[in-house]
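**User:** My hope is that you can spare some time for a protein that puzzles me. I have put the entry right below:
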Amino acid sequence: MFVGHFGIAQLGKALRREVPLAWLVIAAYLPDLVRVLIEPFTQRHDLLSHSLPIVAAFAFGIAALWQLRGGNLLAAAVLAAACVLHWPADLFTGCKPTTIHGPWIGLVSYRRPITDVLVEGSLFVGGWLVARRAGCGIGKKWLVIGLAAQIAFLLSMYNGSEFFIGDHEWTWRPRSSLVPRQQVLESTECRPPHDDGRRAFIRRRVLAYSAVMPSKQSTVLDARAVDRALRRMADEIVELNAGTDDLIIVGIQRRGVQLAARIVSNISERESAKVPLGALDITLYRDDLQTVGPRPVVGPTEIPTDVDGRAVVIVDDVLYTGRTVRAALDELADFGRPKRIALAVLIDRGGRELPIQPDIVGKRVECGPTQRVDVLVEELDERDAVVVSEREDTA
């Protein structure tokens, strides 16, 4: 929510005109303010700022603070209500925890900008109309500025995301404007951003994006979730290596290279350190090379520096049987003897055939043998996502 909570604040102002609008705005946005403050320090920022008990505690706290300043009880109740209403307002456009430990609940996915515009715009304009009728609303100029800010916020936040206009699904990209995409009807459910097995208990039918994937599919991670996972993996790599000294990050062709480049970019941004980035093509090291054909397609292998005595992190998109990683280890051994080799994967889907385990995982996904996991990256697929689908030969 962006301007919707400001609409709640205006409703509170219409009820109790003696309460300063600034107090009502702080009350309405308090969970978001706390989330922004604690997000750099914990991955559980949503649980610690938006669960119902926490929001209720915020409401009690701001009401008590108003009372301590000599305010009356009814005004304190309005402040508390403005804070508590933050949670059901977010419920319409997001996926929120009901308690400190879940479960999570959501009526629509957070990557639906059109829904956000309708819900937040209705709250904002509705609050403005009520406050204006009570003689305490903001001017029309600020109404226009608020709606424009909401639209700008959504366009920046949902770049590359899917949303709907009527029965048609669209993808917003600045370079190509609104581009229609193939439509597939499937069942989805609200999941926490850092899913640990708890699932929400409200489901709905939605149209889901599908460009080249089979129709039986589900999106495990959208673009924002992929970005969050890669940022967390970058932090864990630095922690595992106790810094960036002697660190080399190597991606496995193809999509592991793009993921590795983003991890290096995140490390450079946070640590102000330049980490060497390499690429491995394991085609000639595969244990099933004889089945590939007489002319296998071989991509470039680039190791930017000597690996002897260095800490090497291999990055891949999906870890399944472990045979790709084994081939990568064999190829890396031809370049020298690293001090330590670690494995970081965006998706661990299980099903190992070799004794290989990742050191850093973006997300674990349970899949059956008839399913496939596809990692899509902006550089190659025009969007970021992780999709689970049925194999075509088993459909």
